[in-house]
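so my prof wants the structure for this chain in the tokens format not the other one, which i didnt know existed until like an hour ago. anyway here's the sequence
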Amino acid sequence: MKVKEEGIMKKYAQPNLIKINYDKTIFLAIFVIFASHMGGSLLMAESNQQYDLQDPGLMPPPVITTPDLAQYGPQTRVFQGIPGIERASNGRLWATWYGGGPTEGPWNYVMLNTSSDDGRSWTELKVVIEPEGQVRAFDPCLWIDPLGRMWFFWAQAIEFWDGRAGVWAIVTENPEDENPDWSVPRRLSDGIMMNKPTALSTGEWVLPVAI
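here's what i got, hopefully its the right format
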């Protein structure tokens, strides 16, 4: 796959934030996961995945399951975007979006909250994924797989855009619960995935990933 990219990088007024103005051809890469193999191995082997400790963009972020509202409350989220929603088998709704800071940049994080009454009321944040340093989390997506597990996907990139990004995920086997148990984060590929995967009749799962 060839990607043509010609760009000029410019600084925003905010420190440490890079904006890339570019003219590039984007190809859609299809990343196929075998449900019978990859789906199970994500749960069992993510702790064995090796990461380059010198590359902050490849470091697993912390999964914050008791977010401090003083740090992550609505008053701190001047910028928000890219919402997504999913429904568990018992009707519980889960919503995700990303925000943090004044605009897109290294202060961005993704988050989850939930509703047990068809959206008439919502909990405070249940999960926040905030990478460390100059790495941002953005463009989250939720998906219930054919086995009833809920996947929480997001992208990570250094500062605004590092030319590579990366698709990350955690998964829970009990999305019907208000406080489910989550796996540790695992990096699936380069790029950004904003659409739910598709489960094929062959048992394969197709994830659209753009770079």
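also thought this was worth mentioning. The longest strand covers residues 135-144.
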